[in-house]
Amino acid sequence: MSSKLQAPIDYLKGVGPNRADLLRSELGIHTYQDLINLFPNRYLDRTKYYKIKELQRNSAEVQIIGNITGFKEIAQKRGKRLLATFQDDTGRMDLVWFRGQKWIKENIKPNTPYVIFGKVNWFNGVFSMPHPEFELLKVHEQNLHSSMQAVYPSTEKSSNKGVTNKVMNNIMQNLFLETNRRFVETLPESIISELKLLSKSDALFNVHFPKNNELLARAEFRLKFEELFYIQLQLILKNLIHKSKIKGVPFKSVGTYFNSFYNDHLPFELTSAQKRVLKEIRHDLGSNAQMNRLLQGDVGSGKTIVAFMSMLMALDNGFQACLMAPTAILSVQHYQGLSELANKLNISIQILTGSSTTSQRRKIHESLENGDLQILIGTHALLEDKVKFKNLGLAIIDEQHRFGVAQRSKLWKKGPSSTLSNENETNIIPPHVLVMTATPIPRTLAMSVYGDLDISVIDELPPGRQAIKTVHRYDSNRLKVMRFMRDEIEKGRQIYIVYPLIQESEHMDYKDLMDGYESIIREFPQPKYQISIVHGKMKPVDKEFEMQRFVKGETQIMVATTVIEVGVNVPNASVMIIESAERFGLSQLHQLRGRVGRGAEQSFCILMTSHKLSQDSKVRLETMTKTSDGFEIAEVDLRLRGPGDIMGTQQSGVLNLKIADVIKDRDILQNARFHAKRILSSDPSLIKPEHKTILNAYREISKYKNIWNYIS
User: Fold this and answer.
1) Helicase ATP-binding domain: which residues (predicted)?
2) pLDDT tens-digit profile of 496-535?
3) Cβ neighbours of residue 527 under 8 Å, at least 6 residues apart?
4) Kindly report the CA angle at 418 between 412 and 424, in degrees rounded to 5?
5) How far apart are CA 300 and CA 581, in angstroms?
6) What is the mean pLDDT of residues 114-135?
7) Which residues contact 134 (CB under 8 A, 6 or more apart)?
């Protein structure tokens, strides 16, 4: 049957060459398989009258018989919405109208039987139906009604050229007739039985031609589970293959460097999260497999000290270590922080960036190759062919999403070489890799995109760190904010003011940086106050000069664009003011807030906006004032923006799901990962007879390179 599904769509009854061209160009349907995987985005159900207590949380539309018992108007930011209480003999629900309220109130008769039809929402424990179709029951009973019908994704061009939803339904019927409604099973009997899943054939039929809502919900669950199961299977399998085939250099001992630092020079007590992560890293480094671990930790959670202690394990075993950061500013910050720690142990450490001089580079290259240089910090400059290590054992990549796959693989080739037994060839042993990010990745997304990496999370802040107080203020409160700034400066504190724009835009009603800078100068005149300004259009040398003035405390206020999002560590800066905060994304707001709160004093983040705010902007601002948990913020960001925007183009193929949704179906995703892990832990090669179904399906998926085959 699988070979039948690879037949070109042209051959299906009811298609023909013209429709086939439209299906290919507009909907990406090339084969029978593509058509069967074009899942409906909603359903018209006119077959059944539901009771309110029977309603389920799925994507179907339903019709219900009942009475409206009353209306009430609810004020909103813009206008009002009309809410009606609708009930039958089993319960009650809400009907909602955002427009046309006057006509509704004048024409709908309370306490009279009606049939309503529409899509049901579930919110705060109550079902509601926005803008329902409604009809008096006595009129409705005289009309004829069609059956439950799938509504397929479409485009304006395909509809205009005659490929209507009715045509799509007919084509789909022909496909099921031609295949005799029989499709190859892709899940083992053990999973189908344990989870009480529909068969593959029943699931496909009931998602395209559902007999009722219950069968539709079961069909959707089965197909979502299967899609996510095979994604997780491939990710976990990739991890297992990586560990079995890619050998790393085993760090057999924890020695003098690590123990001396831990016992005599550790600047503060490690948190239990840091200790747990170090144990996970130590376990990886001690095995024969190459470490491939993602370290997530919120701003200020102490990832750098974990990275340094991991480097000490490499040094204790006679290996070198490097740390690569995406910008020169961030590299310098890492270098300054790690130098302080390394100097106490007489460890040689250097920095290599694009601005390093020729003589500096020559010294670094030489000491790196002879092994005198133990730790190298840098930017992309580390990837240059001239940069050769004597024996690189550990490579740490900070904010790895800024680096491409090809760039990261260059680091692999810089590991130590060994002579293969009985041969003259040499074999490069890749260094252990620790990838760090301060951008919290929601758990569901991490499982889908980084499921092949081992993941460590530092989920607590060091003791003594005070939570940053975050408030939202409108422009009308500006005078109070200025007064607060003066009070903080009087206490000896420093302040960031961040703007989203560099120059005035005719189309946007936002204060720009230069206008803001001038108004700040008027409010905080020299010589009493000194102000720095930094933006992306400045020369690097001027930018660095202004930043250093602020770092040294020579200026009290730093007016800047988001160039200060990463790379500036000023413990004395205790106030972050973000202008036009509604223009920033959640992760950006969270990163900016992380620039303060690095000292012992109470820090503040003030989000300034106009009164004109979209619903999404309100959610972002409320989230920022409510929580400082980066993972909670990341989950909200995922709901608002979707996985594609968050992960960027590099991962675009990963989440091109046909029916599942990593946001809405997180429980199914976790369930699928659990079952994939359990099967592979007992049978990593899928050679047991009971797993033959999975192996066959896995081969088919890889063979036809569809959405699951994104693993390189």
Assistant:
1) 284-458
2) 999 886 454 544 434 567 888 888 999 999 889 999 988 7
3) none
4) 120
5) 22
6) 87
7) 108, 114, 115, 116, 117
Beta bridge partners of residue 428, listed in sequence order: 417
Distance, CA of 419 to CA of 472 (rounded, Å): 63
At residue 268, what are phi and psi to the nearest 5 degrees?
Answer: -155, 165
Return d(Cα 640, Cα 309) in angstroms, integer: 37
Look up residue 602 and give its two tokens: 């109470």
Distance CA 357, CA 348 (A): 19
List pLDDT tens digits, range 441-465: 777 777 776 777 788 989 887 776 7
SS3 561: coil
Return the half-sphere exposure (C-beta side, CA atoms, 13 A cut-off) of residue 188.
18
* Band of pLDDT at residue 703, cut at 50, 70 and 90: low
Which residues, in sequence order, are CB contacts of 441 under 8 Å at separation 6+? 296, 449, 450, 634
Q: How many whole angstroms separate alpha carbon 172 and alpha carbon 168?
A: 6
Residue 247 backbone dihedrals phi, psi, to 5 degrees? -80, 140
Query: What are the DSSP E strand ranges found in 330-468?
Result: 349-352, 375-378, 392-398, 417-419, 426-428, 432-437, 454-458
Beta carbons of 306 and 247 less than 8 angstroms apart:
no
Separation in Å, CA 455 to CA 133, 297, 460, 650: 49, 11, 16, 19
Of 8, 5, 16, 6, whose CA–CA distance to 167 is shortest? 16
Could you tell me the pTM of the whole model? 0.67
Measured at the CA of 488, the angle between CA 487 and CA 494, to 5 degrees, comes to 145
Q: And the tokens for 15?
A: 């298609």
**Residue 209 CB neighbour total at 10 angstroms:** 20
Q: List, for residues 162-194, the tens digit of each pLDDT value.
A: 888 878 988 998 999 898 888 999 999 999 999
Among 635, 270, 292, 575, which residue's Cα sits nearest to residue 434?
A: 292
Q: Are 626 and 469 in contact (CB under 8 A)?
A: no
What's the number of CA atoms in the CB half-sphere (13 Å) around residue 112? Answer: 10
Terminal CA-CA length for the chain: 27
Report the C-alpha gap between 690 and 361 in whole angstroms: 59
The single-letter code of the amino acid at 100 is G
Cα–Cα distances in angstroms (integers) from residue 187 to residues 204, 225, 662, 697, in the given order: 14, 10, 21, 8
Contact status, residue 175 vs residue 35, Cβ threshold 8 Å: yes
The alpha carbons of the chain give a radius of gyration, in whole angstroms, of 31
97 and 131 Cβ atoms separated by less than 8 Å: yes
Structural element, H or E, at residue 316: helix 303-316
Residue 297 makes CB contacts below 8 A (sequence gap 6+) with 303, 306, 436, 437, 438, 457, 458, 459
Q: How far apart are CA 611 and CA 593, in angstroms?
A: 22
Q: Who's near 54: CB < 8 A, 6+ residues apart?
A: 90, 213
**Residue 209, token pair as written in the block:** 């031609």
Single out the residue of 280, 304, 302 nearest to residue 292, CA to CA: 280
The span from the CA of 440 to the CA of 633, in Å, is: 8
Could you please report the per-residue DSSP string of 478-530?
A: HHHHHHHHHHHHHTT-EEEEE-S-SS--TT-----HHHHHHHHHHHS-TTT--
Query: Looking at beta carbons, which pairs linking 689-697 to residues 24 or more positions away fall under 8 Å?
Result: 690/188, 690/189, 690/190, 691/188, 693/185, 693/186, 693/187, 693/188, 693/189, 694/186, 694/187, 694/188, 694/233, 696/184, 697/184, 697/186, 697/187, 697/230
DSSP labels for 419-430?
EPTTSS-EEEPP
